Amino acid sequence: MAHDPKKSELAPPRLMEDMMATLGVEPGRLATPWGEVQLSQAIRRCTHCQNTDECRGWLHNHLRDRGGHRSFCINAGLFDRYRPIRY
Question: How far apart are CA 83 and CA 85, in angstroms?
């Protein structure tokens, strides 16, 4: 199978996928030219993030700390803008 750099560039890391799902961010809402740019930037930030332990911990216990992702997630602002419900 041939490598498609554009496709891999827009493939979010697993933790980012889990964070988006937990927060209710629909990837389809980012399906605009500007949204794709933001998503690509968010993927790069997530890929190089140093807060993976905090991220995993929050994903495991998010019901106890509903807005806690904002304290460590470099993409929290983007996710909050694209969420259907804020908490």
Answer: 5
Among 84, 6, 86, CA closest to 70: 86
CA distance 31 to 28: 5
Backbone angles phi, psi at 35, to 5 degrees: -60, -40
Tokens 């496709």: give the residue: 7
Residues with Cβ within 8 Å of 44's Cβ and at least 6 positions away in sequence, in order, are none
Token pair of 58, please? 């929050």
Q: How far is 46 from 52, CA to CA, in rounded Å?
A: 9
Q: How far apart are the first and last CA of the chain?
A: 42
pTM: 0.79
Q: What is the mean pLDDT of each run of 10 residues along the chain (87 residues)?
A: 42 88 88 88 94 93 86 94 74
